[in-house]
Amino acid sequence: MTRVWLNGELLDVEDARIGPSDRGFLLGDGAFETLRYEAGELRRWPRHSARLQGALQHIEIPCPDWNRLHDAATKLCQANALERAMVRLTVSRGPSGAGLAPPVGTEPTVLITAAALPTAPSALSARIVESARRDARNMSSRYKLTTYADMLAARRDAVRQGADMALILSAQDHVSSADSANLFWVKEGRLFTPDLSCGCLPGTSRAALIAALKAEGEVVIEGRFSPDVLMQADAVFVTNAVRGVVPLSRVDDRGFSTEDSQLSRMKALCDVAL
Question: What global pTM score does this model have?
Answer without folding.
Answer: 0.95
